[in-house]
Amino acid sequence: MIEIGKLSKEIFATLKAFNYDLIMYDGDGNIVHEPEDARRYFDRGEDLLVTLYEDGENSSVTLTRSQKIQVTEILSLVTTLKNITNKYALIWNLRMYGGQIKPTNFSRAIVGEAREEFMDLTENMYGTSKSSYLKLENARLIVKHSARVDEDVFGARSRRIDRIYVENEQQERFLLPTNQLLPSRAMVQHVNHGGTISDEIGMHIDRMARAYRDLGSCIRHVRQYSDVLPEGAQGVRESASGKRKDMRRMFERLFRNYAKSSVDLMEGAMLLEVSDDAIGERVERLRGMLCAEGVAMDEAMLEGIACYIEPRIEETQVVDEYHDVASDDLRNSVVLEHLAWLESFDPDVIIRSTVVEQACEGDEEDCEDEGDLTREDMLLPDASSPDLKREVAKKRPNDHPSNVLMDSDD
Fold first, then answer.
1. DSSP per-residue codes, 335-356
2. Dihedral of the CA atoms 347, 348, 352, 354 (nearest 10)?
3. How far apart are CA 119 and CA 131, in angstroms?
């Protein structure tokens, strides 16, 4: 199996070694800050884009350059990326783009949304080499980093986040359940307006923050194991991506326009109440779609996802063609009766019945003298009409059983 995350980190390290100033996007077009999550690497200063296409055995790495960049100018980069691609046995492509390369050239819908999120993550943040802060009027966001913050790297304060605290006006600090800035900014704005992390709105934001994290993990899980997971996993990934985008918009609105957005949140614009029984059913369906032999998901994560995603199973309607034909088209009463008899046909019963008839031949009270019995006699049903045998099959002494003719008496 291809280790896409590891490959992505190698591509990132290579581009940074060549001093490119990068903006990274995931497979859904969202800006990301961890190299293992990146699938598209756009350089700010040069017209250059590296794309990692994830498609099982057809996965590939493509370096796209503009016309103003000559191959000889980036030959070392091309050679290095090509060697990395070959090491992972992927397809390598080198392409030229006719105009100026911008993210909007490749996905216009993605960039506007991604740029908005990117601005939110870094706006008004300041700090030291190990901590970052966002100061509001009555609250403060405190971000602890797991590595030194390089001020020369754009967006560095939104990366390598170890933990996040929110501090209220009384300087009380509370650890948030997420290390992602977007939901954390929504929470600090809530505290800034006099709320707490344990009141109703705070609990809703907390729940959304956890789900936002779990949905992101779900998307990465499906992307990583797409070649072994059932077909329904891609549908779950699409639902998770859509729900995550809705949550991102709500986090943005809570930070920008708290008064109105908090009302929308409480009215259930984002959160749908789901019964425990429904959650249990959804978890079972999700487990079947997201788990395979050797591939599993944490139970708590499945439950968190189930609150926001209702996996749909398309049922195939089965039509009983035989009964449709028998009831609508075969209207001859003799044929219908014969078909009904065939459904309950038991050769042993017919043979025993025939033996009894032969034994009592000549007894007018119990049997009718029909002459010598043929194979057709044993295969015809007991009819409600004494002439049914003649209506169904006209016997001839030397006929083979396969030559039975459907006819009526002359």
1. HHHHHHHHHT--HHHHHHHHHH
2. 10
3. 19
Query: Token digits for 374?
Result: 């043929």
Q: Rounded to an integer, what is the distance from CA 118 to the centroid of its chain?
A: 26
Residue 208 to residue 205: CA distance in whole angstroms: 5
3 state SS for 252-277: HHHHHCHHHHHHHHHCCCCCCCCCHH
Q: Hey, is 322 helix, strand or coil?
A: helix
- Nearest CA to 241 out of 221, 268, 264, 267 is that of 221
CB contact at 8 A, 50 and 83? no
- For residue 268, the tally of other CB atoms under 10 A from its CB is 10
Tell me the pLDDT tens digit for each residue of 161-208.
Answer: 999 999 999 999 999 988 889 899 999 999 999 999 999 999 999 988
Better pLDDT: 155 or 129:
129
pLDDT surpasses 70 at 335? no
Give me the DSSP letters along 42-74.
Answer: EESSSSEEEEEE--GGG-EEEEEEETTS-GGGG
Q: Provide long-range contacts, Cβ within 8 A and 24+ apart, for 348-351.
A: 350/378, 350/379, 351/378
Tell me, what amino acid is at 238? E
Predicted pLDDT of residue 101:
75
Task: Tell me what pLDDT residue 345 has.
Answer: 57
Q: Is 321 left (phi over 0), alpha (psi -120 to 50) or beta?
A: alpha
Strands (E), 74-233: 91-97, 126-127, 131-135, 140-145, 161-167, 173-175
